[in-house]
Each structure stands twice: as structure tokens, then as C-alpha cells.
Amino acid sequence: MRKLIWLIPVLTFFFGSCTKEESDPFATTKPDESRFTKVTLVEGLNEPMELEVLENKDVLFIERAGKIRLYKNETGELVEAGFLDVYPEREDGLMGLAKDPDFKNNHWIYLYYAPANTSVNRLSRFEFRNDVVDLSSEKILLDVPVYRDCCHSGGSLEFDRHGNLFLSLGDDSTPFESSNFNPIDERTFRAENVDAQRSSGNANDLRGSIIRIHPEADGTYTIPEGNLFPAGTEGTRPEIYVMGNRNPFRIAIDPHNDNLFWGEVGPDAAENDSLRGPKGHDEYNLATKPGFFGWPYFVGDNKAYWKFDFEKEESLFQFDPNAPLNTSPRNTGIQNLPPAQKPLIWYPYDESIEFPMLGTGGRNAMAGPVYYREDYEDSEVRFPGYYNGKSIFYDWMRNWIFMVSLTENNELDTLEQFMPNTVFDKPVDMQYGPDGALYILEYGTFWRSQNDNSGLYRIEFAAGNRKPNVKMAANKRNGASPLTVEFSSEGTKDLDQGDQLEYLWDFGGLASSKEKNPNFTFDNPGVYPVTLTVKDQAGALSESKMEIQVGNESPKVEINWKGNRSFYFPEETVAYEVVIQDEEDSEILDSNIDFSIDFMEGGYDVIQTGPEEEMLSMGETLINQAGCKGCHGISNKSVGPSYTEVSKKYLNDPEAKNYLINKVTNGGSGVWGDTQMPGHVHLPKQEIEEMVDFILSISNPSLNKRVLPLSGSYTLDQPAMNGGYYLVQASYEDQGANGIQPKKTVEQIILRNTEISPTIADLFQDVAKSNENNSHFVKYTEKNAYFVFKDLDLSSIKSIDMELDPGNLAAKIEIRKSGPTGELIGETKLLDKNDRKGKENWFEVNIPIQKTTEPSDIYFVIQTDQGISIWNTFNVNSLHFKR
Q1: Average pLDDT, the chain
Q2: pTM of model > 0.70
Q3: Nearest-CA neighbor of 168 among 263, 104, 82?
Q4: Binding site for heme c: what residues are annotated?
């Protein structure tokens, strides 16, 4: 009996723990991305800026041109709730939105906007009742004088738990007049907006700061205790909480401790400069108390700029982060500023040394909300406790979202990407709703545009039953009529309910099927929307759609290339023939044929081959990589003119190419308006020439037209160049038929150098890329690890030289076709450190290769009986394919 008495509390403890764990099985375990679903609420918005999720899950949001809009949760209706007459140019307009902490009772919202026909940006309170903003109820809290027609407006609004309102304000200073470094030009004849010391560095100016005020019921505000400067301090503004900001575009407040997070959009300089200072960095900042955060004297982790004499073009001294000094004649505040604080995270255009996981490219850092599971209703879509206390750090240009964990001392602990396999199109604001789901506004591709891919979305979490993940495919998406299509749901999964799924196909209203993989014949020409709906045993539904076009068969394009189809060999002459067939065209029009052979320098990149049905243009590829489409669309006007407009303007100008090369290189303004285009001196001249050639060819395709004959021979006369490759491509666009638009087919062959780095392989399994002392190689980190090059033609390859370092391992490398255990076509002997004696770290091993006839995926697999660790790896530096 005593044993039973002791057992009762043990069982109570056990089952109590089990119940708690079942209530949140992901309290400490990271959930798989498949447990999150991105739900579209509304799309096609016109520059959405900030949002507020209301208690009933309606979503109030603003658009920069002045609209206040309301998404109705119950009906999915989009309501026009109000409109402000704003100045919508540059980065101004309707910028910020927040609801009052007591919104349920007082119905107050706060808007930060640029009133039309003024030189101020304004913070006002309005009443929002019955789905309408009462514009007559406006109470003006604050006007901020600005240098209109400039930049960096900021405008994000957030409340803390004490009812204090935070507002972020940019430095209102142009970066372009200072070569994209820090704008501190003190010359008296210059415009005031070339000196950010009058704003960000000025303790007596609100611009370039994040202010903290307490709105009062009568429409005024008071100053809470604990801001950066006590009220009454000469040469300061008491509203300032943090200063020294360039463009704090999105801020967030931790609801449990009032920590302030913000993303700092940094300057554009791509390289360090000995006269001016560091290259540009974006920052993710945290303030647990008031402080000065460095701009315009420091960037990144307090990398110091030089005090620069613009008149004499001399560097006088580097600023001291421990004792920053503002001696500008435009400074109306104190000269001795507080010590500069460092950000949590900082990163440049190129790869960050400290944070390489952030990638490279354009930058626009932003801060999102901090999550605490207990703050939200017990809903089925609430995020799990794994994300408790984690803040969101995201980038508008790079389209990623990271979750940030802090230590007890508010230092950076962990940084992990959230939903890396999900597409986000320039996320611009986000907030957890009362249901614990994450609501996201996405701006879409182009600046200053109503983008089709902009929208309001909700990220839902499923701890239990998840909706089926629907995969839908067809062996043909278009063709001549009658068209028989084999449809497939292969890959459709339900991670909770198994394979017991119900399928319903709708063939454009013509018929339906409950088969898993049906066939259907479309007898007549037309465009047919096909929908697949899948239901699991718990009743959860998901669907997928595709369009079938009937009446025009895509042309067939074939390049009969008589040489190796994966590698080029210098000075080799290769015979070829391009064959084109089209079922509907009675004749093949030469004007619709493109055929080219080009040598591309600068690195082999599979991504550069472009989407289906497009000829690769190196110029457009380089434009994409440089992030230029953030400011210019092909046909859409954005910050700058569309490339089509530019091409038309210079259609018959013989000097256009040189002029545009200079404009892209050095930047400028005045041709298409006053907006300053930054220079691109960091880009190689050849790349800029390719960009300009592409732009000019939009209105004059003959400029990009290749005149190679469709049969003959071609000499590959380029020397072996590491990274360079030949691109052979042919395309034909048919004339359309039966009301179906013309179809284009592209065939491409990419011939790369025979000496390649394994770091550009297509697939890695337990293989790490290493970057040590500017040397790029790979490390095998587990037994049976491998890397893969897909679709390699080894028909003329007799051996492969591998440059490797076995470290302290005894191992061999196997070369296999089609899989890690596929046909063995070559292998090294068992290698160990003794094979390296008398050699440098790297040494070559020649591996004979069995003859192959068809291109195959080629696996490089390690075999060893020893343990592989971080200190004991097998490394491969290069591969050289030899005839």
C-alpha cells in the first residue's frame, strides 16, 4: 500500500507534465516549415505601408498615396475607410499608422503623413468608427519641419505598454551629393539637406531620431520620464528617445519589457574609401535605454567616417565613437554627443564577415514584432512557444525574414531564417494578430507602383492537423486541339492524415474527376482553368490551379551540337545545326528566330539561364543581380522611368550608349525628374555596357539580334578562363493560332570551363562550403557525404584531376552516375595524410573515368571508416575534366 501511495504523486507529476507538453508540443522544439501556411487575404495594393490588426481580426492598413483601407475578416471585403490629401513624392505620403492602446473604447488611431502643400510631416489622431476614419476629428499632435523633395522620411508608429507612442524619423538628407558616404558637407552655399549634422547629429532636431511621447486625451502630448535628454536641457529636444539614425523605417516594441527594435537603412557606398570611411551597412538595432546610435559619424559596428573638408577635399580626422562631436555650423544643439551605441546586426552589400547567412545584394533592414504565446488567444493558428521572446528582423530588398533570440543581457544569441522556402515580395510591415497568427503587408516588386504581387497575408501555424500540401502537374500545358493532357497529383502529401485523401479535378467547367491522376481531352481551342482540390480525413481542404491553352502547339527547337555539351575546349571547332518545327505555322519566319553563341565572363551561374521561353540576356541578368529593378521596371515606371521609356527616348541617338554608360556609372538626376539615381562605380564597365545594350535593344531588337547561320561550324576561341562559359541558345516564336497567343521555345547549351570549383555544385549532402583566406573549397563533414553536378556530359572525358587535401583521414572518393550508390565510373585509391608528404596542402589525384554516352547526374561520394569531425575533414579544392 505504501508503494501505491508513493506512486500517485509520481503519476500525477508525469501526467501533469504530459498534459502541459501536449498543449504546446513545440514549446522548445523548432517546428517544420510545413506547419506554417501563408494565406492570401487581398492582393494588388497600391504601395501598402503599415497595418494594425483589430480585435475582431479585421485589418486596418494604409497606402502611401493617402488611402486608409480595411480588410473585413468575416467577409473578405476590402473597405475604403478614408483618404488623406498628402504630398506623395519621394518617400513622403501617408507613412505611419498605430491604434491607441484603448482603441476598443476610444476608437482612436494615429497617422503620420505629409500634408499636401506644406513643408511639414504631421502626426495626428483621428477617430475610426463604423469602418470609417472621421477626418473632421483630427487632432494635430506634432508637426515636423522637413526639407521637402528630399528623402528618408521614416514614419513608423508603435505604442509601448505604458501608452507611450514611438515615432521614427529619417535624417531628411540626400546621400548622393556625398558620393554615398555620410552627408556632412558644411559649405554655406550648399543646400541644407547635404548635411545630416543638422538633423541626425543635432540633439535639437527631431529628424534622424526615434521620439517617445505620451498622447493625452485632449490631443496634446507630454514627455515621459527617461528620454535621452531631460526636459529643459539647453540645445536638446525632450521628445528624443534615440538619435543618430539615418532611416529607421520600421520599428517594433517588445510588449513585455518595452525594448525598442528598428531596422536602419544605411548608405549606398559599395567600397571602403581611405578619404571618407567605411562602405555602407544596414543595421538591426536594439535600445534598452535611450542613446545615440552613430549617424552621420559612424555606421555598422561603429565603423568611423572621416571629418571631410569638401572644399579642400581633405580628410581631417576620424570621428571617435566614445566622444562624437558635432561642430557643423548648421547644428543648433549641443556639440558633445553621447557615446555611439553599436547595433545587434550589421551587413553590407557584399557578404558579411560576421553574418554570412544574410546573403548579398540590396539592403533594406526592418524590424518586426516580438512574440509571446501567452499574449494571444488560444487559437488553432497561434504560433508556438518556440518563438517566445524572439523578435523579427527582415529585409525589404532581400525578401527574407529572420527570428532573433537575445541572451539575458540583451546580446545577440541566435539568428535563424523563418520560412526560407516561402516567397515574400518585399515585406513592408508585420504584426501578430489577436489569434497569434502573423499578418504581413508585402509591397511588391516596384517602388512607387501598384504591384500585382503586393498584398496582405496571414501566416498560420498548425500544431495539429495540417492542410494537405497539393502538388499539381500536367505533361502538357498547351498544344494543338484536340489536346489530351495527363494530369498528376504526384507529390501531394498530408503530413498528418497519411495518404487517405480525396481528390476532385475540375477541367475548366467541362467535366470533373475524382481520380488521383486523370487524363482529359480538350476537344476545342480555348483557355481552360483547371483546379485540383484535395481534402484530408479531418476535412481540411487545399487547392491548386493551372491554365491549359488549347489550339497552338509550342514550336520545337533543337540544337544539334557535335561537340561536348557540358564543357568547352579552347580552339576547338564544333559543327552544329539548328532545326525548327512548328505544327501550325505554314512557314518558319526568319524574323522570329534568334540564334547566338556568346562567351560570358564573370562566373558560371545556373540561375543566369533564365525562365522558360526566354532567351537569356546577360544585360537583363546583370540588372536583376544589381537590384536595379527595385527602381526601374521593364515596362513599369517606378522610382525612375521604365527601361522601355528609356529605350524609346534614345532610339535614334547615336551617342546614347556612351551617354547611358556614363549615367549608370556616375549617377545623376534631372532627365526624368529630380530623383537622384546613385552611381554604380562598383560595377565593372563591361557589365554596365551589357546592361545598356539590353535597355537600348528593347525598342530596337535588331541591336541584340544575332546573325549566325543556322548551320555551320563555330570555333571556341576563348582561352580557358576560370568561371567563364559559352552560352549557345536558339529560340523561335510562332505566329499564334486559333486565338491562342504566340508561343516561344528556347533551347540552350551551356559550355563551362573544364576546371571548376566544387563550391558551385548543384547539390550538397553533408558537404560544407568553406571560405578561408580567399580560398573557396568544400569539406566532407559526414561519412557517405557527396556533392553533385547535374546533367554532365562526360562522353569525351577520360579522366578527372581532383585537387584535394585528405587531412588526417584515410578515405577515398567515388564518382558515380545517377545517385550516391549508382554506377561506379571512377574512384581514387585510399588516400591519407601520407599522400601529402612533400607537397603543399593541396595535391592532385588523377581519376580515370569509364566511357559514358548520355549526360547524367554525377555524384562525388566520400568513403571512409574513420570519424569525420569539424577538426578532421576531407577537403576538395578543384576539379579538372580532361579528354
Answers
A1: 88
A2: no
A3: 263
A4: 628, 632, 677
User: Can you give the pLDDT at residue 304?
Assistant: 96
Instruction: Give the three cell numbers for residue 765.
Output: 549532402
Bridge partners of 98, per DSSP, are 110
The two beta strands, 843-848 and 799-805, are antiparallel
Spatial distance between the Cα atoms of 108 and 110, rounded to a whole number of angstroms: 7
Q: Does the structure show a pLDDT above 70 at 3?
A: no
Q: Which three cell numbers stand for residue 380?
A: 488553432
Helices (H) and strands (E) in the chain, counts: 6, 55
Q: How far apart are CA 119 and CA 787, in angstroms?
A: 60
Report DSSP state, residue 90: T
- For residues 147-161, average pLDDT: 91
Nearest Cα neighbor of 211 from 86, 104, 121, 116 is: 121
Per-residue pLDDT tens digits for 439-465:
999 998 767 677 778 999 999 998 888
Instruction: Give long-range contacts, CB 8 A cutoff, 24+ apart: 865-873.
Output: 865/810, 866/809, 866/810, 866/811, 868/780, 868/781, 868/782, 868/783, 868/785, 868/809, 870/781, 872/807, 872/808, 872/809, 873/768, 873/779, 873/780, 873/781, 873/807, 873/809
Residues belonging to the binding site are: 628, 632, 677
Residue 286, strand partner residues: 261
Task: Pull the grid cell for residue 317.
Answer: 580626422
List 861's β-bridge partners, or say none. Answer: 786, 814
Buried b (16+ CB within 10 A) or exposed e, 100-123: bbebeeebbbbbbbbbeeeeebbb
Burial zone of 43 (CB within 10 Å; 0-12 exposed, 13-18 middle, 19+ buried): middle
> Strands 541-550, 478-479: parallel, antiparallel or unpaired by DSSP?
parallel
Other CB atoms within 10 A of residue 18 CB: 10
Question: Which helix (H) or strand (E) is 59 found in, with range?
Answer: strand 59-63
Separation CA 390–CA 406 (nearest Å) = 7
443 neighbors 452 (Cβ within 8 angstroms): no
The whole-angstrom separation of Cα 785 and Cα 874 is: 10
**Residue 309 β-bridge partners:** 314
The β-bridge partners of 679 are: none
Q: Determine the pLDDT at residue 834.
A: 83
| C-alpha to C-alpha distance for 460 and 442, rounded to whole angstroms | 16
At 156 the three-state DSSP class reads: coil
531, β-bridge pairs: 506, 545
Residue 624 has pLDDT above 50, yes or no: yes
Cα Rg of the chain, angstroms = 31
Other beta carbons less than 10 A from residue 441's beta carbon: 23
Residue 534 to residue 573: CA distance in whole angstroms: 54
- Single out the residue of 422, 391, 465 nearest to residue 38, CA to CA: 422
- Is 276 in a helix, a strand, or coil? coil
What's the grid cell of residue 65?
498615396
Contact between 365 and 406 (Cβ < 8 Å): no
Strands of the sheet with 473-474, listed across from one edge: 473-474, 483-488, 519-522
Taking every pair of Cα atoms in the chain, the longest distance, rounded to a whole number of angstroms, is 103
Q: Which of 523, 530, 525 is nearest to 488 (CA)?
A: 530
Of the candidates 192, 231, 233, the one whose C-alpha atom is nearest the C-alpha of residue 334 is 233
Q: How many whole angstroms from its chain centre is CA 583?
A: 41
Q: Determine the Cα–Cα distance for residues 142 and 169; give it in Å rounded to an integer.
A: 12
- Condensed to tens digits (0 to 9), the pLDDT of residues 505-529 reads 999 999 999 999 999 999 999 999 9
Q: Which residues contact 740 (CB under 8 A, 6 or more apart)?
A: 478, 525, 527, 549, 550, 551, 552
